[in-house]
Amino acid sequence: MDGLKGLTAEDPRTIGAYRLLGRLGTGGMGRVYLARSEGGRTVAVKLVKAELAAEQEFRDRFRAEVAAARRVGGRWTAPVLDADTEADIPWVATGYIAGPALSEVVEGTYGALPEYGVRRLAYGLSSALLDIHGVGLVHRDLKPSNVLLTIDGPRVIDFGIARALDAVSEHTQTRTGMVVGSPSFMSPEQVRGERITPASDVFCLGSVLAYAASGQMPFGSPASGVHAVMFRVAESAPDLDSVPKHLRELIGSCLAKNPEERPAPEDIVSEIGPVSSGGASSPWLPAQLVAQLGQHAVRLLDTDTPPSGQPARGRTGEAGGRTGETGGAPPSERSGSRTTVLPTGSATAPGSAHGPDGGPGSGDPGGGPDGSGDGAPAPAPAPAAPRRRRWPLALGAVVAVVAAAGVATFTVPALGGGGPSGGGSDIPAAYVGTWTGFVERDGVPTGQQRRFVISHGSVGEVVANSISLGATYECKSDGKLVSVSDADGLRLDTKVVRSAPEGRCSALGEHSLKRGAHGTLVWNAAGRTATLRPADHEVVPTAYLGTWERPNADGVGTQRVTIERKPVGSPAVTIEVRGSGGHCTARADFYSADGKLTVGPSVVQQRAPGCTASSSSYFRIAADGSLVREFRGNDKQPRTYTKVQ
Predict the structure, then answer these.
(1) Is 46 annotated as a binding residue?
(2) Which residues on neighbouring strands pair with residue 641, listed in sequence order?
(3) pLDDT tens for residues 454-472?
(4) CATH number of the domain that 272 lies in?
(5) Is 141 part of the annotated catalytic residue set?
(6) What are the pLDDT digits (tens) for 626-639?
(7) What is the model's pTM?
(8) CA distance 162 to 11
(9) H/E run at residue 262
């Protein structure tokens, strides 16, 4: 793993609110430091090179890319925690990932990963690309050194901000360190200088998987000549002879020369299916590597926070680990906060009480704040609990290595953000993940569904995002951690970040989440409760994809439904109505695919006289292959569509 070097006279001692511990490395964009926040969280801070900071075009792109990267979910990436893009020397702070790069593992003593490990890698990297592409970013430099391995899965780093370098390298082609992309892991489009799309990342993913499965680069090493490698990437078939045969079809499809012939990340996720989260019961890494990660965690505990003006003490050169340059979610406060946001694939027009589907819209009688269903003003948020003192790393965290049947199992202290072992986190690992359930009030179902994504973080930070789905509304909220204890679980103060229809939702105030029976969480807020169960990384099933059509009831014109594969919380359904009254267009968010496709209320994009809103709805595939849509509100009858393309 990378060595942690002591600070030199030319290094700052603090950046923003972060005290530096040592230098992790230097790259084309600048220097990367290991640091700690005022609350004791271990982070990585990248300080941009002064000469790049002087380039206005670079600074403009850097600003835009950091803003976009903050919206990426942190499950498979390193989260952006903080940044100052306007400083004389811009910087960005990200979660510290306690794990080696894939390149270090394969080129070291461990060699290629076992087949089950490669499948776990493929699932995690595809999920990361799904999140990255969902906010409009393209990684452009997915390679083994930008893939970090942790006990519970891979993490992708260095995405998005690589594009900021393009702003300078497009005009300065010989500048040192300005090459975006690595020859052995570039796509044909990159080699030819063509337009880069998300499909380019899928090609790079195929090269990374081939390397992980065989220990060899599928188009050869740059040692044999950079131009020769780039020619093979563009013109020759990959060498997959050393790849296990059960993986060749998947990897080969990613390496198709034609971008349109490559699978989308969601196709790979769907094909592989849910993969175990790893850990003691189902390790995905070699046992020796798991043990090394535990030893690394212990060494990091020895790295002291230095007093002002002093270099870090501890076992320098041993505290490895890596950092993501971008990724994560928007902080609600300047220092150290983060959240995992379900990414949106495109902007959605403000909500409206009207939309397509012909027929009067309907308010939800008694519909209320944050999708609560009572229509009353939300109670005032509870005051934040005093922030307790936290030690530099989670006090009492234990590393216990147990040799059993050749497998090392242990609990790793919280070292870095962006993963279930997040650094300095107050959130117990049992709460981290995606949870969903149905809401009740006084034991009576309300018809509302609730979905939470909970990530690591500390008191005062945004640690949860939720979607509240009712018959005629969809509310998206952020939850800031107020307190955490064994008795009370998590206490959150929420803030609505999106409402459909616009203005419909308001925050309920304090929420509580406690561990329930059989691996569940119990949610309570304003007299409502729900038993939440773990949710998979859901995707829209292939059977629903495409365009479906039915004639209008009056026999004039048609109604069309187009369903795309988008992340949860993104507009995956487009509804078009063409008739005597004009043309209406609306979109609806994908909520879940648990047995049937659940989507939120439509949000109007284009309106003509006579258009009215549609409620939340369910889609299912009938026995004859037709698409059936059932509405949750508005008293509309089910509708049946026939596939047209």
Answers:
(1) yes
(2) 627
(3) 877 778 887 888 899 999 9
(4) 1.10.510.10
(5) yes
(6) 999 999 976 678 99
(7) 0.50
(8) 24
(9) none
